[in-house]
UniProtKB/TrEMBL annotation:
Domain Transposase IS66 C-terminal: 443-481
Entry-linked Pfam families: DDE_Tnp_IS66, DDE_Tnp_IS66_C, LZ_Tnp_IS66, zf-IS66
The Transposase IS66 central domain, residue ranges: 151-436
Domain Transposase IS66 zinc-finger binding: 92-135
Organism: Bradyrhizobium quebecense
InterPro entries, per the entry: IS66_C, Transposase-related, Transposase_IS66_central, Transposase_TnpC_homeodom, Znf_dom_IS66
PANTHER family found in the cross-reference section: BLL1576 PROTEIN (PTHR33678:SF1)
Domain Transposase TnpC homeodomain, first and last residues per copy: 11-85
Descriptive protein name: IS66 family transposase
């Protein structure tokens, strides 16, 4: 009885520590990159301030510091327009002999200049013609097709609104405030109308993107909450935004990376089954049990995430002394050290290295976990962490025999991060339909980023082509990875 009470007390203490860490501690195992960059910005600003003060107080070293800056700044892109300014001497007569000076060369320097974003108005004129002889009928060229019939914006303007909202995380009301500063009064509801119409035209692209990803032999999957306004109850409900991503770059695969988001009002296991209908291959996921039903069909093999498994031990080791959890972290660190060395190598080479170096480590780690589980209370959080790992051991170690599989699910978790930033700024989607629009446009924007394609130029061109009747049979030409920088420069 006393032993049971002690175990229960220890379990409750651990729960309290976990809640304290969640409430007062860091939310991630490592410092978030964005937060770290904010701190570095301040440090760099102070350094620049001190360097400027040094230039003023010690001008004799200014040229040396300027040479250092010129050596570190790199080259400016060649596609940017150059506006040349010639700074010449006033007279070309030699001050000594009064002879004519001749040019022997020049110094050339480049600086990056910025012209602020500027609205302009495109005026379309359509002359009318009539015949003086027969006076029957009027001839006039047909009006160009518009994305927003009877509306003000060009396709480029609508694309800018989409990119500002879904790539730069600016809600529509903030965009309306920015435009108002330039004298353009656009109501938030007007911008919302533009986004909704654009989402309708882009929906086939989203469906095709998801369909192309389903044809891949390996995908990552994850989901995040999506608060959605529920007017009937006067509050928000919790929907789910599912993310399905592919990225073969870590093992040198030829297929381009991509990610497709799909909104669903709940987190039922039937959702990924419907989203991935027809998919056959390896699905790398976290420990959510709902994916198990997908694997029951036999066409899908689950590969589990070591990062999620590690987190359970990390949460135990962080609050205070936890020898077993800390030792588990050391075991897992050995796996990641080997993976860092083989990142970017071919799939077969990765498989051979894993079988040679990681397989013995995995077998030893499994034996260690089982031995420790037999020695500790079965009701504690540590036992839960060990059972979590052992119950998913086959999926956790599937990467050893397949060089295409990653150690963790971080690829898709990185794709989830922009969604969380948007959610933080917008707070919630206005409806289920708004959440679906969110998934449609964010899929195209994030796939552009993964393929180093400018989302603004891409969306401008894609919307223009769609409005002008781009054939559905050639829809693959409008997927983000079908674009390259040269194509988009020609469009611009």
């Amino acid at each position: 009885m006393l032993l049971a009470e002690r175990c229960e007390s220890e379990r409750l203490r651990q729960i309290i520590k976990e809640l304290q860490r969640h409430r007062f501690g860091r939310r991630a195992e490592t410092l978030p990159e964005d937060q770290m960059l904010l701190g570095l910005e301040d440090v760099e600003q102070v350094a620049a301030y001190n360097e400027t003060a040094q230039d003023v107080s010690a001008p004799e070293g200014r040229e040396a510091r300027a040479r250092t800056r010129r050596g570190n700044r790199g080259a400016l892109p060649m596609h940017l327009p150059r506006i040349e300014v010639v700074v010449d001497i006033e007279g070309k007569t030699c001050p000594c002999c009064q002879g004519e000076l001749h040019r022997i060369g020049e110094d050339r320097s480049e600086r990056l200049d910025l012209v602020p974003a500027q609205f302009r108005i495109l005026v379309t004129r359509r002359p009318k013609y009539a015949c003086r002889a027969c006076e029957d009928g009027v001839m006039q060229a047909p009006a160009p097709i518009r994305l927003i019939e009877g509306g003000l914006p060009t396709e480029a303007t609508v694309a800018h609104v989409l990119v500002s909202k879904y790539a730069d995380h600016l809600p529509l009301y903030r965009q309306a405030q920015i435009y108002a500063r330039q004298g353009i009064e656009l109501d938030r509801s007007t911008l919302a109308d533009w986004v909704g119409q654009a989402a309708f035209h882009l929906r086939p692209l989203h469906d095709r993107l998801l369909g192309k990803l389903r044809q891949r032999p390996k995908l990552f999957a994850d989901e995040t909450t999506m608060p959605v306004l529920d007017p009937g109850r006067g509050r928000t409900k919790t929907g789910q935004l599912w993310a399905y991503a592919a990225d073969d770059q870590p093992w040198g695969g030829a297929d381009p990376p991509g990610v497709a988001y799909v909104y669903a009002p709940d987190r039922k296991a039937d959702r990924p089954i419907a989203h991935l209908a027809g998919f056959e291959g390896i699905l790398q996921v976290d420990g959510y049990a709902g994916y198990g039903k997908l694997a029951e069909r036999g066409d899908v093999q689950l590969a589990f995430c070591w990062s999620h498994m590690r987190r359970n031990f990390y949460e135990l080791a962080t609050p205070g002394p936890a020898p077993i959890a800390s030792e588990a972290l050391k075991h897992i660190a050995e796996f990641y050290a080997i993976e860092r060395d083989i990142r970017g190598r071919g799939a077969e080479e990765r498989r051979l290295v894993r079988q040679q170096k990681i397989r013995p480590l995995a077998e030893a780690f499994e034996r260690w976990l089982r031995a420790k589980l037999a020695l500790i209370s079965q009701k504690g959080k540590l036992a839960d962490a060990i059972r979590y790992a052992l119950s998913r051991w086959e999926g956790l170690t599937r990467f050893i025999n397949d060089g295409r599989i990653e150690l963790d699910n971080n690829v898709v978790e990185r794709s989830i991060r922009p969604i969380t930033l948007n959610r933080k700024n917008a707070l919630f989607a206005g409806s289920d339909g708004g959440a679906e629009h969110w998934a449609t446009i964010a899929s195209l924007v994030e796939t552009c980023k993964l393929n180093d394609v400018d989302p603004l130029a891409y969306l401008t061109d894609a919307l223009t082509r769609i409005v002008n009747g781009h054939p559905n049979s050639d829809i693959d030409q409008l997927l983000p990875w079908a674009y390259c920088r040269q194509d988009l420069k020609a469009v611009a």
